[in-house]
Amino acid sequence: MKHYRSRAERAAFIDLWLAEIYPQTPVPLEHKDAFTLLIAVLLSAQCMDKRVNLVTPELFALADNPAAMAAVQVAQIQAIIRPCGLAPQKAKAISGLSRLLLERHGGAVPRTFKELEGLPGVGHKTASVVMAQAFGVPAFPVDTHIHRLAQRWRLSSGRSVEQTEADLKKLFPEAHWNQLHLRIIFYGREHCTARGCGGAVCEICRTLFPSRQRPIATRK
Fold first, then answer.
1. Considering only Cβ atoms within 10 Å of each terminal Cβ, which end of the chain, N or C, has fewer?
2. At a CB cut-off of 8 Å and minimum separation 6, what does 158 contact?
3. What pTM did the predictor assign?
4. Which domains does the chain have, with CATH numbers?
5. Count of alpha carbons within 13 Å of 149, Cβ hemisphere only?
6. In this predicted model, what pLDDT tens digit does every residue of 27-43 receive, in sequence order?
């Protein structure tokens, strides 16, 4: 059995394995352009993508561009997005960023990290998703699944999301970042779950860390 002792060896195996399992990497948040993706990612903070996808059709039927969204009352936005949680803050951010897109960017979503992160409610992770998935700029957004698995697979110390992002960017080819971050998310949801795998059950964990495998219970 091959031993994957170094981070680089583990990363290379993970990269190849996930590409085989997930040759296609569709963005899990439903959207039609950069603006609707930006809003969907903002809504996904502390909320499951499935729930966001249930909410956004009604929101985007009401307003699917900055000009239309800026004209909607914050209270109306809040009522629609309430199932996503943190509705007051998110509604204000959606309204505010829509106005700023009109005032500062001609109604277009900006294509730089600095400008995106200057919008209300838009942090580095949200900006990274938009840059990667709307504009094709190499980025490595780190969500809870990626942060968790980077530690579990010993690719990063996991002391902070920022450190995890920096470590993963050093380990994986830049050309793979945009697909790979989605592949890790898919795998974390479907196979290497927080409790279901625990670092000892899924194929990647069993291959990289055979000593972790749980002993089979025997009847007395």
1. C
2. 147, 150, 151, 164
3. 0.92
4. 7-24+140-208 (1.10.1670.10), 34-133 (1.10.340.30)
5. 29
6. 999 999 999 999 999 99
